[in-house]
Structure formats: structure tokens, C-alpha cells
Specification:
The complex is a heterodimer of chains A (108) and B (113). Chain A is mainly beta and 108 residues long. Chain A contains no helices and eleven strands. Chain A is globular, with a radius of gyration of 13 Å. Chain B has 113 residues and is mainly beta. In chain B, 0% of the residues lie in helices and 51% in strands. Chain B contains no helices and eleven strands. Chain B is globular. Classes of the chains: A mainly beta (108), B mainly beta (113). Chains A and B meet through strand 4, strand 5, strand 9 and strand 10 of A and strand 4, strand 5 and strand 10 of B.
Chain lengths: 108, 113
């Protein structure tokens, strides 16, 4: 089976850097994804790590370490529009299992 | 532009009634998924399909059913609605088996009274 753990909430100010950690227990796991969801909206894809290491996409970066069963999403130069929930999701057995989500609150 | 739509967007029904939520995608994706989202539980997989006439149970499938008669649609049916099924339901699709990027519909908020 799979389970993914991430912090429930993080608060930071505009311009700061936030790291959202995700630890997982899974079998047959082959990748870690991150999704963003604004209040009242649908989840949208941010990134996918199939290999160990860092993937950078603009202000957002994602990291995976299979040996440590650990990944993180790094949000840089925080903006007010980054206030949202962020979900890690493990890909295994051809489907995704989502963590409980981390609510990020960006303050002026 | 390709998209994925859900209907209705909001639904109130009574306990014991049968309810069907529609999901339609124009991405021509083979894979389609249904999730429910409740506070504190993230997204949980209900059912999924990898193609026409293929359906599979997810982690919270009890009380739900799906059928896939074409590529575009995967309707979700609640056979006999229960208050525990009050939730926000999301449909998603993806391009190929195993690919991680899923495209989500706008969601249906279902209230069972």
C-alpha cells in the first residue's frame, strides 16, 4: 500500500522561500508528483520527479530521494497568488495516491 | 481547446436516492479517474478506467459504480446516496498509462441530506 505524509500548514511572507516536505511509504512506486489547488478550484499539475534529484520549473522546484523515501517542493520568491494547498502524489500501479495536502498562506 | 467538464457543479439530494455525476473530456485520453475530496483527507481515488469497457476500483469504491462506453465519458453513480458521501467530487484524465500528469475537471459539490 501507499501513504504520503506532508505538513498540514505553512505560513510565510511575500518574497520568502517555503519548502514542503513529503515522506512516503509505498510499494511499486515510480515517481512523485506535486499539484496545486486554490480554494474552490481544481488541482493543477506542477511537477513530476521520476528520478532522484532536483527539477526546476520557474520559481518552483521539486526534489526526490528514493533511498530516503522523501521529496519536497520548493517555492521561491513567494507571491500572494501562491496561497493555495499543495499535494504530493505517489505514482504506483498506474495511478496516483495523494498526500493530505499542505495549506500555504502567504502574508504581505 | 481540449477540456474536461463535470456536471452538475452543485447537487443536493436525499438519502437513498440514486445520483449520477457526469464527466466529459475532449483530450481523447484513455485514462480517467474519479476522486472525492474531504477536509483533512486530500484526494481519494474512487474508480478509474484505462479505456473503453475497462473499470477498476479505487481505495474508496464502496457505494459507487462507473461505466465506460466511450473514450470521452466516465459517469459516476451513487447507487443509494448516504450522508457520508457528501463531498466534492473531481474527475481527471491522463494521456497514457503510468504518466503522472492528470488534468482535473472543476468538481461537483454533492450534498446528501
Amino acid at each position: 500500500g501507499q501513504s504520503l505524509e506532508q505538513p498540514s500548514e505553512v505560513t510565510a511572507v511575500e518574497g520568502a522561500i517555503v519548502q514542503i516536505n513529503c515522506t512516503y511509504q509505498t510499494s511499486g512506486f515510480y515517481g512523485l508528483s506535486w499539484y496545486q489547488q486554490h480554494d474552490g478550484g481544481a488541482p493543477t499539475f506542477l511537477s513530476y520527479n521520476a528520478l532522484d534529484g532536483l527539477e526546476e520549473t520557474g520559481r518552483f522546484s521539486s526534489f526526490l530521494s528514493r533511498s530516503d523515501s522523501y521529496g519536497y517542493l520548493l517555492l521561491q520568491e513567494l507571491q500572494m497568488k501562491d496561497s493555495a494547498s499543495y499535494f504530493c502524489a505517489g505514482a504506483a500501479g498506474n495511478k496516483l495516491t495523494f498526500g493530505g495536502g499542505t495549506r500555504v498562506l502567504v502574508k504581505p | 481547446d481540449a477540456e474536461i467538464t463535470q456536471s452538475p457543479r452543485h447537487k443536493i439530494t436525499e438519502t437513498g436516492r440514486q445520483v449520477t455525476l457526469a464527466c466529459h473530456q475532449t483530450w481523447n485520453h484513455n485514462n480517467m479517474f474519479w476522486y472525492r475530496q474531504d477536509l483533512g483527507h486530500g484526494l481519494r481515488l474512487i474508480h478509474y478506467s484505462y479505456g473503453v469497457h475497462d473499470t477498476n476500483k479505487g481505495e474508496v469504491s464502496d457505494g459507487y459504480s462507473v461505466s465506460r462506453s466511450n473514450t470521452e465519458d466516465l459517469p459516476l453513480t451513487l447507487e443509494s446516496a448516504a450522508s457520508s458521501q457528501t463531498s466534492v467530487y473531481f474527475c481527471a484524465s491522463s494521456e497514457s498509462r503510468g504518466r503522472s500528469e492528470q488534468y482535473f475537471g472543476p468538481g461537483t459539490r454533492l450534498t446528501v441530506t
